[in-house]
TrEMBL record:
Family listed: Belongs to the ABC transporter superfamily.
Protein name from the UniProt record: Amino acid/amide ABC transporter ATP-binding protein 2 (HAAT family)
Superkingdom of the source species: Bacteria
Domain ABC transporter: 4-236
Length: 236
């Protein structure tokens, strides 16, 4: 398979505190890769480094054949590496359509109308609620809006940061079904999650991060065959 994102030996942190300890990770084109780990494992810091918000101390990030290490976050977005942040981060005082249109501000602005139609086809509920203020929507609807906003930028790779956070079990199931559908349509996805069980059901491969390092990696079948992984993360 063709490599899309390659993270090679990334070290990073805040002040003198090292958070990431030589992290290696790869996502191929058209692949759904899960990055799993508990709170404090370093997942958010890695997302911030990939997005140009935190500088790497050492190592390299390659995306679609280009060196993306420590470039400006605007260039990261322009390259097609798009992140849907934890907690959704919609603009509550703007309506659904306005939130979506902002997703195309830096990238794909000329194709905003056609991309809106694609998002509405994926999320019919958003089409019905175009004029509703984002802040009045349910958590599940806001998550759909956040993902739709990311899709407006025509991502080559979509990073989904804790998309199931705060959702009811029924909405979590719906969200994972949607993510699997996006992958079947050919979108490369890096799914950053604490929900190990459901992530492994839809992922092609997975990495498990602990204390700033990758502790396990492999296919879901390989990871589930590990007694230590099952005991530590699945409780079985």
């Amino acid at each position: 398979m063709t490599e899309l994102l390659v993270i090679d030996g990334i070290r990073a942190g805040y002040g003198e505190v090292e958070i990431l300890r030589k992290v290696d990770l790869c996502v191929n084109k058209g692949e759904l890769v899960a990055l799993l780990g508990s709170n404090g494992a370093g997942k958010t810091t890695l997302n911030s480094v990939m997005s140009g918000l935190v500088r790497a101390w050492s190592g390299r990030i390659m995306f679609d054949g280009q060196d993306m290490t420590n470039i400006h976050y605007r260039q990261v977005v322009q390259s097609g590496l798009i992140q849907v942040p934890e907690g959704r981060k919609v603009f509550p005082n703007l309506n659904v359509r306005e939130n979506l249109e902002l997703g195309a501000f830096t990238r794909a602005r000329t194709r905003r109308a056609s991309n809106l139609d694609k998002v509405f086809d994926t999320f019919p509920r958003l089409r019905e609620r175009q004029t509703q203020l984002a802040g009045t929507m349910s958590g599940g609807e806001q998550q759909m809006l956040a993902i739709g906003r990311g899709m407006m930028a025509e991502p080559k790779l979509l990073i989904l940061d804790e998309p199931s956070l705060g959702l009811s079990p029924l909405l979590v199931e719906e969200m994972f079904t949607l993510i699997a559908k996006l992958r079947r349509e050919g979108l490369a996805i890096l799914l950053v999650e604490q929900n190990v069980g459901q992530s492994l059901e839809i992922a092609d491969r997975a990495y498990v991060m602990e204390n700033g390092s990758i502790r396990f990696s492999g296919t879901p079948t390989e990871l589930l065959a590990s007694d230590s992984l099952r005991q530590a993360y699945l409780g079985v």
